[in-house]
Structure formats: C-alpha cells, structure tokens
Design goal:
Layout: E1 6-9, H1 13-26, E2 34-38, H2 46-52, E3 57-60, H3 69-83, E4 87-91, H4 94-107, E5 111-121, E6 124-131, E7 136-143, E8 147-151, E9 167-170, E10 200-204, H5 214-224, E11 227-230, H6 232-237, E12 258-262, H7 268-274, E13 279-284, E14 297-300, H8 303-313
The protein binds flavin-adenine dinucleotide.
Length: 316
C-alpha cells in the first residue's frame, strides 16, 4: 500500500512546520501528498515557511486567530472531504486537541492525542504515547485512512527536500449553525506566558518558604534571560504562581536549552514535563533528591544561599 496523503494542522507556526517535516518523513520518497493548513490568524510568513518546510499543498483558511473551533472544525471537514487525506496530523496543543476532537466528531474519525512518535505499519498507523506518568510507552495502532493523530510539540522529522511548486487553495469559513453560545469572555489570570516556548527556565518548587521569596527567583530568571516555572504545589495548592508557570504531567511540557530546578524534589509527574530539557541544573539540599538523576549539574545545598551566590556571580 502506498503511503497516504497527509494533512497537517496546527495554530502554532513552529508546530505546523514540524508536522510537515514529520509527514514528509512518513510520506513515500517521491514525496506526494503532504498538505498543510494555514489557519486563521497565521503570521504572514507561515504559508512560505510551510512551503519551504516541504508541504506540497496549502489549504489557506482566512479569518481572525480566535476563530470559533467549531467553525474551524467545519471548515477542516470540508477540506478533508476534498483532499481525502489518509492521515491528519495535528499539534497536540490545547486548541489543536479541541479542534481535532470536534473534527473527529463531525467526520466520525478515530483520533489519538498526545502522540510522541508516529509510524506507518502496513494498514495501520502505529502511535506511541506516554503512559503511567511517563514511566512507560503505550503503543497503539489505528487503521489507516482517514484518522487523526495529534502529536506533542517538538515531534518532527528531518528537513525534507524542497518542493518545486506548491498548490495553494483558499477556503473561506462558512459558519455552521451554532451549537454553543458565547455568553461571556473572562481573561484567565496569569497573562500570556507561553512557557513551552522558553529557551531557559528557572523552576521553583516547594523548597521556597514563602511567596515573597519569589522576587529572588525572578531576579535569577531575569539575570539568565529565563522564564519562571514551578511545580504543581506552587500553582495548584499555594497559588503563588499562575497555571501557565506549572510544569509537568498535568501542567506544561517544556523543551528549553537550560532548565534550573530549585528546591524541586523531582517527582515523576514533574519530570514528565521537563525531561527533554537539554541542560539541567538542580539545586537541592537533599543529596538523594530524584531530580539529581536528571541533572547535568548538581548543587547540593540550600537554595537560600545558592541563589544569592548565583546572582552575585551573574552580576545581578
Ligand atoms: C495525578 C498527579 C499529577 C501531578 N502533576 C504534576 C505536575 O504536572 N507537575 C508537578 O510538578 N507535580 C505534579 N504532581 C505532584 C507531584 O507528585 C509532586 O508532589 C510535586 O511535583 C512535588 O513538588 P515539589 O518538588 O515542589 O515539592 P516536594 O516534593 O515537597 O520537594 C521539595 C524539595 O525541595 C527541597 N528543599 C526544601 N528546602 C530547600 C532549600 N532551602 N534549598 C534547597 N532545596 C530545598 C527538598 O529537599 C525537596 O526535595 C502530580 C501529582 C499527581 C498525583
């Protein structure tokens, strides 16, 4: 069986480009059949980035970034009916999962989210996902054609050969009859931090004694050009930081170049969220803290002494 044509969708530009690369690595070597959606509100250069990234066709959906997921799913359903992709690759982001779920409902398609690896095997799609708090890998197979797999950001393939000519189709969104009504919009406290995109993160855990001491952590983050992350207790229980700082299984998955963990024990649910950090520095007064098993640089000591020393060394 020849590999199916692919349709890639993510509202996150970098993830969309990664999906095209992933699809190209799954597509047959003659390179047919990778199409990508340019979603509403996409930056002006996304179409060119997707084309340069290896897409053979672009499905352009104009409109504002905050387009209703229900409307978007209906537009994607039309695209699927025309393009007839065998495999739809979505970014497993919050919005990606929502649109994927609605599309799966509209077209009665199988859908898996949170994939960390995708392969074609005969008549099926083999999907790997984390299980048991990231301690095991679940391997699932769904029949090819069509199916939706939403992959975690960062899952991609090698840079493919460029495509000579890219077909572009525009799809105006036609709102379907609303199933839901928006009665109120409330801004979630915590601002617009997108910690998944941070290249450097200073994460604080329960080693911090009181909220006021966050100023010292923020100063270190500033000195390193980093964002502040936290473990679940600091966001969910103490409420010292908003949810967009929370890293882990039930928080955000991050992929920074530098991850500094201060007073973090290294519970498995936290490690799931930071495992793909490139360089990990851990500060903990317990030499046996599990975080040290993940760390490239291990500092056994009191963060209340180490952080000021680091600040002095950094000239902060
Ligand atoms: C279903 C489920 C989902 C979960 N999801 C998440 C998640 O997404 N993210 C997450 O983070 N957790 C999650 N948790 C919670 C997780 O199991 C841990 O409880 C949590 O990660 C521990 O946070 P912590 O490391 O800040 O605190 P602790 O485990 O209490 O560790 C504090 C650490 O600080 C050190 N310390 C104390 N004082 C100092 C000091 N002065 N200097 C240096 N070191 C010091 C201690 O030695 C200790 O190692 C989840 C739990 C469950 C059950």
């Amino acid at each position: 069986m020849s590999p199916d044509p692919f349709l890639c969708y993510s509202e996150e530009p970098d993830v969309a480009v990664d999906l095209v690369r992933l699809a190209r690595s799954l597509a047959d070597p003659s390179g047919t059949g990778v199409r990508a959606v340019v979603p509403p509100g996409a930056p002006a250069d996304l179409a060119d980035r997707l084309a340069a990234g290896g897409a053979h066709g672009l499905e352009i959906v104009p409109g504002p970034a905050e387009s209703d997921p229900q409307v978007l799913a209906a537009t994607l359903a039309e695209i699927v009916r025309v393009a007839k992709p065998g495999l739809l690759l979505f970014g497993s982001t919050k919005r990606g999962r929502e649109v994927a779920g609605r599309l799966a409902g509209l077209l009665d398609l199988p859908a898996l989210t949170g994939a960390t690896a995708v392969r074609l095997e005969g008549e099926s799609v083999r999907v790997e996902r984390e299980a048991l708090s990231g301690n095991a890998v679940a391997i699932e197979r769904i029949p090819r054609g069509p199916a939706i797999v939403a992959v975690l950001p960062g899952t991609t393939g090698p840079a493919p050969a460029p495509v000579a000519s890219v077909e572009r189709r525009e799809h105006p969104t036609a709102p379907p009859p609303p199933l839901t009504e928006r009665t109120e919009v409330r801004t979630k406290p915590g601002g617009q931090l997108e910690i998944e995109k941070a290249e450097r993160i200073v994460t604080i855990g329960r080693g911090l004694r009181k909220k006021e001491d966050l100023t010292m952590i923020e100063a270190l983050a500033r000195a390193l050009g980093a964002e502040v992350g936290c473990t679940r207790p600091l966001a969910a229980e103490a409420g010292w930081l908003s949810d967009d700082h929370w890293i882990g299984l039930t928080g955000h998955r991050v992929h920074p170049k530098l991850y500094v963990a201060l007073g973090v024990s290294g519970a498995v649910q936290h490690l799931v969220g930071m495992r793909s950090a490139r360089i990990v520095v851990a500060v903990n007064r317990d030499a046996n803290a599990p975080i040290f098993a993940q760390a490239d640089y291990k500092i056994v000591g009191d963060l209340y002494q180490i952080v000021p020393a680091l600040l002095r060394a950094l000239g902060g």
